[in-house]
Structures are given as structure tokens and as C-alpha cells.
Amino acid sequence: MSEVIPEPREIPEPLEVQESTALVYEQNLPLRWWQLPCLPEENELHRLNDAALRIVQVALAWEPTPQAPEGHEEPGGRASELVEFKVNLLLELVSELLTRDQPLPIPAAVELTGEGIWWKTARPPGESEILRVELYILPSIPKPLVLIGEVTSIERSDDLYRVHARFLDMPEQLHEAMQKMIFRHHRRLVAEARRTPLMNP
User: Is 123 a domain residue?
Assistant: First the structure.
């Protein structure tokens, strides 16, 4: 029986980038990608986007709670921190068990926005290729955020290549959730930077 090859779908125009989307999620994260012959069919893309939304929602739920200044702790704050610690410990144990047979990919320097992703690699894809990108934004939970994108630029960066791919057919709900995740990540980094001088006088 011959293999049925889906007809290539038309690649949509990129999401319009606004000034409010300028924040970038920068971190070294496990990442893998591979080339697709064409954009996935609508049903498969819908399934991938639904799964991606759930991963982002989990990331939002497990975003570390900012610490209150000394002397301004909220009631129940210590108990909440203890619960968060226990849950994180449980996640680490589960992750260790799951990754024994399925190790995470090598981390890459990643820059993520709601419209696209940059990463550095020694073996870049080709220009204009359609990719399936798997990004482990929660290494403690070895389930990747899967996004479909088109390569728009490849730049030489020292001994590596800096690749950019814009996301394709991303629904608004997923786009907004990613923007929220990126904003919280940025806010946490700013809070940690402000707290560091106080901890190291």
C-alpha cells in the first residue's frame, strides 16, 4: 500500500509584532528540532497547539512565587513556600525516573518571544525550512513545548549558527499565554537582580 503524502498547505503570514511584545525569554534550555516536508494538516496542528497551550499553562502555574521583602511576609507565605518546595522535589524525582530511558536533548542558548524563537546550533537547518521545534521549558517535567515554525534567518555566531524561526498558525490563546509566561519570567529576573545586592552587601 503506497504512502499517502498530504498536500502542502499554504504558509500563513506571520503574526504582527507590536511594541508590547518586545520582551524576550532568554535561557539555556534543552531543545531539538527536525525538518517537516510541509505544514502539518489542520487537525494535527490543532492537536499540537492544544498540547503546547497546556505546557505553557503548567509553566505559568509553577512559576516561582516572588519573595516578599523581609518583614512584609504575607500570612501563610511560609506554608506556601513549603508546599512549593515539596512539589518541586516530587517533580525532580519523577523527572529523574522518566529521563532514565529518555534523556533530554543538549541545552541550547534560546531566545523566545510570542512570535518566534532564536537558538544557537552547530548544525543549522536550511533557509525557509518548516520545522518542528521541541523546547523543554520545564526540565523538571520532561514533556516538551512543541511549536511549528519557518526558518527566516541564519547568522554565523563565532563557532555556531544563530537560527531564527517564526511560528506558524499559532492561535491567539496560545500566543497570549506565551506572552504572559515571558513577562513573568522577565519580572522574576528583575526581582532577583534587585534582591542580589541586598543579599551580598
Answer: yes
Query: Cα angle at 61 between 85 and 198, to 5 degrees?
Result: 55
Question: Looking at residue 106, what DSSP letter applies?
Answer: P
In a domain, 195, yes or no: yes
User: In 3D, which of 168, 167, 163, 170 has the Cα closest to residue 118?
Assistant: 163
Residue 200 has a CB neighbour count (10 Å cut-off) of 6
CA dihedral 54, 21, 24, 44 (to 10 degrees): 30
> Domain residues for 138?
22-64+78-199
Tens of pLDDT, residues 7-46: 555 555 444 433 344 689 999 999 999 999 999 999 999 9
C-alpha dihedral, 90 to 87 to 178 to 126, nearest 10°: -20
Asked whether residue 171 is assigned to any structural domain, the reply reads yes
Nearest 5°: phi and psi at 166? -95, 145
Q: Count how many domains the chain has.
A: 1
* DSSP-H helix ranges across the chain: 42-61, 77-98, 172-199
Q: CA-CA distance, 151 to 164, in Å (whole number)?
A: 6
